[in-house]
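From the thread on structure requests for the teaching lab: each student submitted one protein with a one-line request. Submission from student K.M.:

"Model GPP34 family phosphoprotein from Streptomyces rugosispiralis, tokens only."
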Amino acid sequence: MTTPRDLLIVTLDVAPIRPLERGDLSLALAGAELIDLLGTEALTIEDERIVPGLCPPTGDRLLDEAAASLVRRPPHEPVGDWLWRRGRGLSSAYLDALEEAGQITRRRHGWLPLRAGQAVPVDSPARRHAMDRWASDEPVLANLAAAIGIREDPAEDSAGTAGDATVTVLAAVNDAVMELEAERQRRAIEEAAYDNIWRGQ
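Reply posted by the TA:
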């Protein structure tokens, strides 16, 4: 199992403290991929830019795709830019992968706004691994979950135990999620103003 898969299972298993947005989840999954690739030494972070290293196969198709998509020529891509590029539609890709692996099933009528038919994790070693990691307040998973509203913010120093590069990625995920929320609010205000014009208000 990988951090993105663990994060997705947690989002399916734990009621969020605020509505889960598909775009937020995709950004967090992209961040989780970077953190796992840091762990395999497939990349390093220098001045908030992603510098690819060796890319040995990870055994996970989506993680290998993420490694292959890294910009290998300088100037290397900023972490934030990569999150937006890689994150596009990523939640659907991970849902499909979990479904193909038999790790989730679907039932109708659920809160998750990702697809018709709520995705539900099946009882499996993958689910138990993800939930054990969740129960232990593992810093990376806890901080990613907090960024997308699955839990309250963890302790301020919890991410610091994960290393500087990981902290950089987690901060970029938080910034991207906040930027996306600001864009949603801006569009909502514009649509409300447009509706008021047509109503003669």
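TA comment: The mean pLDDT is 88. The longest helix spans residues 164-198.
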